[in-house]
Give the backbone structure.
Amino acid sequence: MKIAADIFTIVAILTGGFFFLAGTVGLLRFPDTLTRLHALTKADNLGLGLVVLGLAPQTGSVLAGLKMILVWLLVLLASATVSQLIARSARRHGPHP
Amino acid sequence: MNIALNLALILLLLALAFWTVVARETFAAVAGFVSYGLLLTLAWVALSAVDVALTEAAIGAGLTGALLIGAASRLRKTEAAARAERPGPATRVLAAIVATAVAAAIAACVLLLPDPAPTLAPEVARNIASTGVGNPITAVLMSFRAMDTLLEAIVLLFGLLGIWSLGSDRYWGGRPGLAPVAEPNGILAYMARVLPPIGIVVGIYILWVGADYPGGKFQGGTVLAAMWLLLMMSGLLDAPAVSQRWVRLALIAGPAAFILVGLLGVFVANAFLAYPEGLAKPLIIVIEVALLPSLAVTLTLLLIGPPQRAGSPP
Amino acid sequence: MSAPTLFGLCAAVLVGFGLYGLMVHPQPLRKVLSFNLIGNGVFLVCAVIARRGASAGFGGDPVPQALLITAIVVAFAASALAVALMLRQFDETGSSSLSPEVAPAPAKSPAKGEA
């Protein structure tokens, strides 16, 4: 049972790390602000969700797992708000280097 | 944490610090500094200092980052003039030599630290039962070194007085910051309606749990300050005029309660800030509950700066 | 070489970077950034000393760690004061230069303060 939980953790965290890597590649390779924001928010939020999911079997209690999911939801809220604000500013002032 | 993880963390820290020093644009340097602050949080965790990690994440990376980003965006026009003043290669070489010498001296001190290391941990463990709290850092901050915490609260007030004295004479006692651009249906206003209830609960929880687990009033106060800053930035609340009585009472309530408890110790337990037998935990709770709102108000006002508008309501 | 010693050497390099940045950059904001780097390096050395003092069931000596919390908060207050000074100088003279050769611009009209 512990082996199954550990394998699940490793697979989920590796997949999450791959999504973070994809988001960073998008940040470096996409041509302008709006596409970079798209790559960052989508890939990074999914990556964080997978990492949280992977860590959930390793915590001792249900409460700690719920706290981690709350952290993930707050990060979703913050990154969605910030990316909308950056996109609005980029559209208004033109792409800033 | 094993050696490979620590090494990777150290290399990233050094790379980000290097970027902060050599980046051409100030805004890029500030962005590097904020990420460096967040990585430093992991370094504190690697050194088993979880309370310090919480404080670094909240104040070192969060509030200092917000402060520097605001300053960098306001000073953007001076970039070109500043670039004209850059020093020549001779100064750079001299600066590099001095910096390397100082770094080498500190590295030598680190390598020559005494072994076994002197420590006060057994003393703390022996006396922690008398304070009634389980977290040794809270015990040190609020009981064994309570004088330092009191002076820190007063230093924050002095810093705030210094910032207020930098406002122009016309707006003395007025409202800090520029007038809010209120966009009541915007996304920032949405977040400012959703997040503060959660943030207030989290902030008070961090204060309460600091008695036995990592946490405490500095970290909790910073979360409360961040919620108030969010409300002001989104335009839902305006910055308070600093001459208002509730602002000034909120600022001094915490340190005043601390000093009163200290004087109580003079009369009852023969020393300033000594706690009478058995009353340590309740007195610590009184001080922390009084300091939490004062700290939140002080940190917020430190961040938003001196008064720049008239204080009378529009 | 143990982990705390590695972090101590990292702290020494950070202080070196910060000192170089403090001496080389003319803008006050970059100097404040470098000064924070120096401060964080010193805090790291203190945390290394705390970690080496781990005993009696604690992960680190609590006294230096508590002093570090105080230090981080006070460093923020000092940075806030420095930034307020910079911004006031910018508002009054239009430049943030520390050089004595840059003549301050005549005092601007007070209407600029309104948003």
Q: What stands out?
A: The helical segments of chain A are 2-29, 33-55, 62-93. Chain A touches chain B at residues 74, 77-78, 80-81, 84-85, 88 (CB under 8 Å).
